[in-house]
Please model this.
Amino acid sequence: MREYENLVNGDMVSLIKKGEKDGAETIWDRMEKMKTQCGFGVKGLCCRNCAMGPCRISPVAGKGADKGLCGATADVIVSRNFARMVAAGTAAHSDHARGIIHLLHKAEPNGDYIIKNSEKLKKLAEQWDIDTKCKDIYEIGRQVSETALNNFGKPFGEITLPKTVPNVRKDLWRKEKIMPRAIDREVVSIMHATHIGCMADANEMLKMSLRTAISDGWSGSYMGTFISDILFDTPKATKTESNLAVLEKDQVNIVLHGHEPSLSEMIVLAVSDPELIAKAKELGAQGINLVGMCCTGNELSMRHGTKNGGNFLQQELAVITGAVEAVIVDVQCIFPSLAELSKKYHTKFITTSPCARIEGSDYIEFDENIAYESAKKIVLSAIENYKNRNKENVYIPDNKTSFMVGYSVETIVEHLDKVAQENEKGTLMPLIKAITGGSIRGIAALVGCNNPRIKQDYNHIQIAQKLIENNVLVIATGCSATALAKAGLANKEASKFAGNKLKGICEALDIPPVLHMGSCVDISRILQLAGETANLLNVDISALPLAGSAPEWMSEKAVAIGMYVIASGIDAWLGVIPQVTGSDKVVSFLTNEVEEITGSKFFVETDPINTANQIIERIDMKRSRLGI
Ligand code: SF4
Ligand code: MSK
Model:
């Protein structure tokens, strides 16, 4: 008998049970069938980088093969496998950014994509020495776009970094030879170095991974977020609701899942199109209900206050409600299983990106050149499916939670202005004073995914609760932010769960104790906050009482994130053991020696309360080093 309560929370249990009754398969069924996962893979000890392999190194010393056919040791194989994860994660974030930057190039005053935040555009242009005087804003946009694109394949010199990176950190990256040259170049370099007959020095492989990851965090992701704000505007604090109960019984429900604002921004417009609303009503629905999921859910709620259906592990459960006319997806974190699952119900599974075509889905390519028209076609297809809903087999859970979202750095500064002295307005100084004065003990960033090895959201929630109780302000992105939103920790009333000092600050600033800062690519907002704070205090980022944790991570993007966080000087706690334990050398580098290079390191801790306690301990250590 399956112990559902160990898999998911509350209402979601009833959805898994409904799925079983309906003969639908979920990730938890597949996990059961998978039984024990491969012991070599779990430790990172399997190499199939050439056709003499696969070579598997015995995890037990003195037993079985201790080297691959080419002579690669466990250290070499594990470090190469890890590096390839970093390269893939960097590629995913950065290709997303490239798409956004192309959109900026395409933007036109009367086009589907316009420049909504010209101030932010000018700010970036000035940072990059692009003349902004007497120039049309769209011309500036094109020049910024071209400069940004140059960061992908810059032929000479270093990558262009934002001014928020403290100079001392840049010097350190140069000294350690981990300053990136260009995003694509770093990804390609890893693919080259991990080819048979190349890198066979684990520590150097990991340093190369740090360099690639920096190009993700401080360039790919950073530009992706920054330019999204230029095109779609900087998010502001707004209230909305989360969890699958945001689906509506009598409306056309559209679940939008993936990562790309280019698609989601158009879909959000299309669902308000009077012609499409009329069509939905003609078919008997009361309207169109757009629900975001995973990071598109975060993007949409950040900028439009759109309701958020849930995070990674809820994508199949959304279909099982029987109330969803279409799951529309673009790229990243999409289960291919949705193709088969949606056929058990009336749901249309609509794929839109040439980068994520899924057999068995309805493919309607989203064409950015006719973006609005394309979005309308996709939405219409969902509306037309309303008539096929089996009303007898609909179950929408009851529980939804209201939460605050939209805490870009600019919005945080606006809130700080409420208590700022005149000469500190528009800066992070009040936050720094709250930290140095002890009202905020430190800041912890909770990020990353869900992973079925852990009860959904459990680690995120436990860690956040413990941290806010201890006056640590939590900032969150990605599926972690959604987990905390669903748990009621990202609304203002949650300050009652915070320690007295943090509670006081939350009330004075009118903010929740957990600040939802966006999607996983928006971790760059956290880097921005860290960099600006360090610059104001005139210290390196590694000196700040700041920590990060990905307690339920699963994706290669998360590995790249972990590495750029470490490279930036921020300690990172992982709640899922990475596939590196086959090499003591790699483990030791990541959890120990790397600190000598970057001033921070990984902590691997599967118990959430221990994680929170360790974070608090490191924060206190950094405070005492700063003399505060
Ligand atoms: Fe085996 Fe070496 Fe080929 Fe890897 S690169 S599969 S260890 S021979
Ligand atoms: S969606 S990478 S499961 S955070 Fe960004 Fe969530 Fe992790 Fe995907």
In short: Residues 74-232 form a domain with the Substrate Binding Domain Of Dnak; Chain:A; Domain 2 fold (CATH 1.20.1270.30). Residues 87 and 188 are 8 Å apart (CA to CA). The chain has a mean pLDDT of 97.
